[in-house]
Amino acid sequence: SVSATGLENPYAITGLGTSIYVADQYNYRIVGYENPPSSGAAAFVAIGQRSLSGSTAGRTQSRMDLAGGIFVTAGALWASDTGSGRILRFSPLPSASGPLADKVYGQLTYTDFLPNRGLGAPTALTLAEPHSPLVDGPRLWIPDAGNHRVLIMAR
Predict the structure, then answer these.
(1) Among residues 73, 55, 75, 51, which one has the least CA distance to residue 65?
(2) Which of 44, 48, 80, 90 has the smallest CB count inside 10 Å?
(3) Is the pTM here over 0.90, yes or no?
């Protein structure tokens, strides 16, 4: 069963200060741990689910279809939702489960999910299969495997 201590296909990991974040791919969430955890430690937050016991895929402002890569700064967390062809930004950095993303990259709305927005050919604003985002000052770097490129966007 899904819990604060269980993971189903941990896919990516990142950290900031004393917090660690793990993409729990098949539970459709990013989980956060405080004060470098030991094996089996309980997460304190679930991003992409309403609670630490949730495991429902979704294409909304608060859900993910396939949690992928993660990047975290002091003010925000960026997560690739590979199954929905998008990157979600959660700002401020979530401290409670069930946060709403404040920005979506690669899609027009939080519920859109078609690769390249259904346009077929990629554009400078579309994604097909985004992976681990990276923030570099004002830029957001996105490996877009479905379009065989790295896309650079304003963050």
Answers:
(1) 55
(2) 44
(3) yes
Q: How many residues does the chain have?
A: 155
For residue 65, give the H/E element and its range: none
Residue reference for tokens 């679930």: 46
How far apart are alpha carbons 121 and 143 in whole angstroms? 16
Average pLDDT over the chain reads 95
The two three-digit tokens of residue 68, written as one number: 């992928």
Q: What stretches of 10-120 adopt beta strand conformation (E)?
A: 10-16, 19-24, 29-34, 45-47, 67-72, 77-81, 86-90, 103-105
Confidence label for 71 from pLDDT (cuts 50, 70 and 90): very high
DSSP state for residue 15 in the 8-state scheme: E
CA distance 82 to 128: 8
Q: Torsions phi, psi of 92, nearest 5?
A: -70, 170
Distances (CA, A) of 147 to 65, 67, 88, 109, 143: 19, 19, 19, 20, 9
Label the pairing between strands 86-90 and 103-105. antiparallel
> What would the pLDDT profile of 27-42 be if each residue is shown by its tens digit?
999 999 998 778 889 9
